[in-house]
Amino acid sequence: MKIQENISLKPFTTFGINKKAKFFTRVSTLAELKSALIAAKEKQFPVLILGGGSNILLTQDVEGLVIKLEIKGIQVVKEDEDHLWVEVGAGEVWHELVMHCIAQNWAGLENLSLIPGTVGASPMQNIGAYGVEIKDVFSSLQAMDRDTLEIHSFDGEACQFGYRESIFKQAFKNKYVITSVTFQLAKTPEFRLEYGVIQEVLQAKGVQHPSLREVSEAVIQIRQSKLPDPKEIGNAGSFFKNPSIPSNQFEELRVLHPTLPGYPSSEGVKVAAGWLIEQAGWKGKRIGDVGVHAKQALVLVNYGEGTGEEIKKLSEQIQASVFDKFGIQLQAEVNFI
234-336 sits in which CATH class? Predict the structure, then answer.
């Protein structure tokens, strides 16, 4: 393990923000992770764990130690007639895992194709797309306690999954480092095609009985049609969560805005944040080197030399205008550092 000083984090985050880490190291084993945490504790450095850097916005330099988590490995740890349990290192790239599973004909992750980031962040965020969330295929995870350096196991109930939420973003924030995740995947696919336009894309291609790969390719086509590639334009995907509002508030808003899309949720009705932002006039708007993507209002972008502070300010302006117009408070899905 080598600790470097004054390292730019621009290459390690999808927003491409040029902020520096005072100290930086990469770890690819549990032993290296343990050594890095011990070193940080001895020197009283705050610690930032970095995976794919796809869900953070850097608004300042990081004064402590940034640990880039690169623990790899994909192995089947158990199987029965219908399922297999696959343990994956937290440093594996998420989309590469999805492609590996499809190649092995392991079903369950195909709707989550092309989501940026690493495996370790997937349960933390309870990532989801097109009707599937991590909790639907999750079995357990292993995580290292940052203080005791002991490894603990968490099942789905212990993770307290919610919409883009888990206990690791709440009560256990900054307490654990997720080191591996075990998924329960199916040997026979049970496709979820009713969400979004997956079925429409498959029909347009003349696909009647899709394979795992064909479903994945449809999802990739949809995502690429409306989401910018972080390698070309800095972004973190969806910047805001889709808010849930009480049913009576939704009905009142529908009187004023008949095209407001909504879906039943445990808290009432979930409405589309992208639609709200677009109706508030932000879609495609650019301020200096930051802005709102022209094809998807849910995505804030860095056109080159934008700063984290500028993107944060833009997000606050969007929140204020959406609240003024609809009385709905948007919450950021992206983590501010």
Answer: alpha beta
pLDDT confidence tier of residue 196, bands split at 50, 70 and 90:
low
pLDDT at 107 over 80: yes
Looking at domain 4-69, its CATH architecture is 2-Layer Sandwich (3.30)
Query: What's the rounded mean pLDDT across residues 13-18?
Result: 91
Cβ–Cβ < 8 Å for 126, 168: no
Q: How far is CA 129 from CA 110, 116, 160, 196, 299, in A?
A: 10, 12, 19, 9, 15
Residue 65 and residue 25 in contact, taking contact as beta carbons nearer than 8 Å: yes
Contact 3, 27 (CB under 8 A): no
Which is nearest to 277 in space by CA: 299, 257, 309?
299
Q: Who contacts 240 (Cβ-Cβ below 8 Å, separation ≥6)?
A: 273, 277, 298, 315, 318, 319, 330, 331, 332, 333
Classified as helix, coil or strand, 321 is helix
pTM across the whole model = 0.85
Catalytic residues: 164, 238, 333
